[in-house]
Amino acid sequence: MAALRTLTAVVVGGLFLAGSAHAAGKAPKHLKKDAAQADAARYTDAGPEPLLDKVFDAIEQNKLDLALQQTDLLIKAYPNFRLAHLVRGDLLMARSRPLKAFGDAGAQATATGEKVADLRDEAVARLKAYRTKPQANYVPRYLLQMHPEQKHAVVVDTQKSRLYLYQNDKGTPRFVADYYITQGKLGAEKFREGDKKTPIGVYHVTGNLPRQKLTDFYGSGAFPINYPNEWDKRQGRNGHGIWLHGTPSDTFSRPPKASDGCVVLANQDLDALSKNLEVGLTPVIISNNIEWLSLDDWQNERTSLLKMIEEWRQDWESRDIDKYARHYSHKFSADGQGYAAWVDQKRKVNAGKSWIKVGTGNVSMFRNPGKEEYVVVTFEQDYRSSNLSNLMKKRQYWIKEAGRWKIIHEGSA
Fold first, then answer.
1. Given this model, what pLDDT does residue 101 score?
2. How far is CA 381 from CA 182, 325, 335, 377, in A?
3. Element (H, E) at 165
4. Which of 5, 63, 330, 342 could anchor a disulfide with 337, C-beta 3.0 to 4.6 Å?
5. Structural contact between residues 198 and 225, judged by C-beta atoms closer than 8 angstroms
6. Domains and CATH numbers, the chain
């Protein structure tokens, strides 16, 4: 029993605490799954987390044989799952002697010790995310509006090593599934080429690279995203080649921090996710820590921003350049012109028009999850005037300036 209590404590120290409760074969009260956690059946239990959770449930209850049985089932389902093999080795060793550390059997060499630490981090990430599912009536703040053609959206939480897939249910984001992910070796908030960090921001899928065009390192495929986006470029960020991709054929999953900046999924998870990714449409929002809103608060924020866009549209139609220009930041620039020169040009252009009509269709709005407060707005613009008409897909970046949302960049999407 002493050996098993040691194992329970060292595997995921912050999640499972050894003590009298374990000795009595009971989990501490704070570890008992509440109603929201117990309702995990509402979610898609794709992946090893449900079985892994059962393994550690058995460990918490000091049921060594049951834990070993569940681990064997886990390995049968996921033969290349290194974490499961390590846990099995510890469970077997705990029968003969007390364990001093997680992965005690192979933690002597420095290189091996580092790998064991990676697997421990993976165990913590997987179980913590599984046991703290978001509430069903809460959504990521960033998914303000998907237009009808955007059937799904992806939101990544780098701190939890988790990717969440949402479906567009008549404008409301509905949870579909979540998956364990790997981020950059040096964490998030990418700034420059080669810094081995994952970017934070609002992006879109820009390509679909099948397995046949890639080396085995990328697994079953890859989906590039548009990093750096226009906002990143304004902030001086650079780099390229940020993808969602899979793992080598002999690897089930990688540690939480192991990529050069990409978001990496197990191949089976990428295969499931890829069915819902559409080039040029699917947003990929990467956050350090997801902010969740109740549906009521989400609706209020969404309504407020839609009103802002409608005011911009109406003021453009009014041909009152001062009213129209108030929607633009003084840091705005377009076609090499600063704000003042741009306003002067618009004033001259509008003077030659007797009327303007502007339509905005298929509007999408996604809020930046980082420290920088901006919203990415994309829509189909139908512009008509007394002497010009055109259709285009436009993308704008709105920032908070002196308490008011204003456009800092706009251009073709």
1. 67
2. 38, 18, 19, 12
3. strand 162-169
4. 342
5. no
6. 2-131 (no CATH), 138-293 (2.40.440.10), 294-412 (3.10.450.50)
